[in-house]
Design goal:
homodimer; five-stranded mixed β-sheet; alpha+beta; transferase (chain B); about 170 residues; 6 helices; Diverse_Substrate_AcTransf (chain B); 7 strands
Chain lengths: ~170, ~170
């Protein structure tokens, strides 16, 4: 049994969908997952690509199964320029402790360094102590704890109501 | 004295740089601004565009000055698909209270609605009560307060150290 880390292909989308759900269950938010396979395929591999992804592929006796992924996209800091945001990072529980996570996250970080991105950012639930410890051990900084940054969201009717305020020429 | 809200042009970059610095001073983080005008021009208006921007322009007696901006880019939720992240949103103090902010933020939200983005996200410092109150009045949700999301960052030597763990095939 070997585990390889590689860039995702369109044919990986079902496996990535399964892992997206695995991560949502782990975060106790599985009811919030509205993603459909066709949307993920189009948005990741269509004419406009909204994300990139590394996958960990367990190969044994000619069969392969995705057991981890790190999905990311470029963001922009008006203070430091191009950065990367790691939207999802997950390894199936039975494959943890083997360094797969480090290889996945390392791949995202390598892209950041190669593309001269100043930062890799990501979000973690405050109650997720094992993940927080994992990230802090690797030198990540909790910007909410240290600088008191809060993440805000506009959605639904509040989003639509504000959209009606636009009078752009 | 009319104030026009419009999409930014490359020629607006100096005005946007001035506002980026004003916002950083307001956030008490001006020492963190490393951005240079050539970088902003290239990254916003070059071959690969990392952000989009609306500006509020004050026009009087044939002269114009940028007095506010809202800079944003597309992000991706594996639960809901395409979203928008509003990286910076700022109106110079002397022009507040005139609805310019609502028009700028409204323009970003209108793009979100037109492009079928489920959410507009942004970050606010926890001590910035006046901004927090403003956003909450518009129906925005503090996800750090409500769901305990923390923003993490990897940068500098910690980022490079993680990058060295990559062994992608």
């Amino acid at each position: 049994m070997s585990i390889i880390v590689r860039e995702a292909l369109q044919t990986d989308c079902q496996g990535i969908m399964d892992l997206i759900m695995g991560l949502a269950v782990y975060e106790k938010m599985e009811d919030k997952v509205k993603m459909k396979l066709e949307t993920l395929q189009e948005d990741g591999f269509g004419s406009e690509k909204y994300f990139k992804c590394f996958v960990a592929d367990r190969q044994e006796n000619g069969a392969s199964k995705l057991i981890g992924y790190a999905l990311y996209y470029y963001i922009y800091s008006t203070w430091e320029g191009k950065c990367i945001y790691m939207e999802d990072f997950y390894v199936s529980p039975e494959y943890r402790g083997k360094g797969v996570g480090s290889r996945l996250m390392g791949s995202v970080c390598k892209i950041a360094v190669e593309k001269k991105c100043a930062r890799v950012q990501f979000s973690v639930l405050g109650g997720n102590k094992p993940s927080i410890d994992y990230y802090k051990r690797r030198g990540a900084i909790d910007m909410t704890e240290v600088e008191d940054w809060h993440l805000f969201r506009l959605t639904g009717s509040a989003l639509e109501k504000l959209a009606a305020n636009s009078n752009t020429v």
